[in-house]
Structure formats: structure tokens, C-alpha cells
Automatic annotation (TrEMBL):
InterPro entries: Polyketide_cyclase/dehydratase (IPR019587), START-like_dom_sf (IPR023393). It holds the Pfam family Polyketide_cyc2. SUPFAM superfamilies: Bet v1-like. It comes from the Bacteria. This is Polyketide cyclase/dehydrase. CDD domains: PYR_PYL_RCAR_like (cd07821).
Amino acid sequence: MARVYISAVMDIPLEEAWGVLRDFNALPVYHPFFSKSEIEDGKPSDQVGCVRNFFTHEGGHIREELLTLSDREHVCAYRILEATLPVQNYVAEMRLKPITEGNKCFGEWWAEYDVAEADAVSVHQTVSDTFRFAFEGAVKVANSRRKA
């Protein structure tokens, strides 16, 4: 089983970062890889068990189920149900923690999955970039909301 882990210090308060990242349907708002997303069956995007159906700009398709969402602990976990990304048994978790000095936020995002050896390098890079760009995008969105 492969594991990818990314962490980041975000120069925004935890509440602002969480305000962006907690929305399970908002990937296209803060992430440059994704073009559209919808929650299936009209369920709320913060309801455990909801399924997001989303697409990359290049035509990739992923369906993921929300497993955990905690506003108290600032954590969410999800699993891939189906994807054009060649992975199996994919489970991921994102967690935010406050950094009190400077009113910043620490984010960590990990995923574990099975992947064929031939696809491993490219999949690991894609997953790493996905998490890194999500943290960067959350900062941009939070800063733009503050200026609005």
C-alpha cells in the first residue's frame, strides 16, 4: 500500500482555511485541477456519506464518498469510489491545526492506496500536487474573501 503525505503552513487563520476546505463540493473554487463538481442526490456537502462527482480540466473523473467531517477537530476523510486515476482502496484525510504564533494554520493531508508499480510514480506526483495545490488555493480564496 502506498502512502502520500503533504503538510503546509498557511499564512491564514485556521477558521479561514477551514471555511474554504470543509466544503466537500468546492474543489473547483480553490483548486486549479478541477473544472466542476456536484454532490449526488441533492445531499448537503457536509453530510457524512454524501458523494461528490467531479471532473478535471483534462476530462478525468472521480467519485468520492465523505467518511468524516468534524468542525470541532477540523478534519475530513473520504474515499474514492471510482476514478480515472489508476488507484484502488484509496482513503484520504485532511486535518488543520492552529499555529498561535502569527495566527497561521498547519495543514496535513495524506492518502493511502494501492497502485500498480508501473503507475506509481505518476500517481504519487498527482496526489502530492493535488494536496499541495489545495492548500495553496485555500490561502488564495481566503485572502480574496477578506478583501471583498
